Amino acid sequence: MGNDFRINKYATDFIESLALSNVKSFYPDAFAKYAKISLQRSIEELLDFTESGALELKWEIRCPNVYCHKKIDGYSSEQLTEELNCDKCGQEFILSNDDLFIRFDIKKDYKEFIKSETSGKKKENYLVS
Ligand SMILES: [Zn+2]
Questions:
Q1: Cα 7 to middle of ligand 1, angstroms
Q2: Banded pLDDT at 81 (limits 50, 70, 90)
C-alpha cells in the first residue's frame, strides 16, 4: 500500500491530540480531511485503533431531512428497519444506510493514559534542562 506508515503516524498524532483535548468523540471525515485520504480509508485506519482499545465505534442515526439532520438518540443497530420519528422536525422515516453515521468515541482510559504519558514527558524534559 506504499504510504500506510504516513497514515498510521497521522492517525496516532490526530487521536493523541484529541485525547489531550476535551473532545470525547469525532467523525471519520475529520480525520480524512486531516490526513488528506478518502473517508473509506479513514474508517479503515481508525478501526485499527478500536482493536487496540483507544477508540470505540458508535453508530449515529441522523434525521434524513437535510434542513434538520438532527442526531437521533436511543436507537440501537438492531432496530434498523424500524420506522423512526424525528423529535425535532417531526419527520417520519424508515431507517436506511444513508441515515447512519459512524462516530468514534475516545475511550476514557486511553485519554487518561495519554495525559499521564504527556505530563511524564514534560517532567523529564524539565529535569534535563
Ligand atoms: Zn428532523
A1: 35
A2: low
What's the grid cell of residue 98?
444513508
Residue ranges near ligand 1 (ion) with Cβ within 5 Å: 63, 65, 68, 70, 86, 88-89, 91
- What's the gap in Å between 88 CA and the centre of ligand 1? 5
Domain ranges of the chain: 4-119
**Cα 71 from Cα 35, distance rounded (Å):** 26
**What residues pair up with 60 in beta bridges, in sequence order?**
101
Q: Please tell me the predicted confidence (pLDDT) of residue 20.
A: 96
CB atoms within 10 A of CB 46: 22
pLDDT band at 3; cut points 50, 70, 90: confident
pTM: 0.79
Triad 4, 115, 51: Cα angle to 5°: 40
What's 4-119's CATH class? mainly alpha
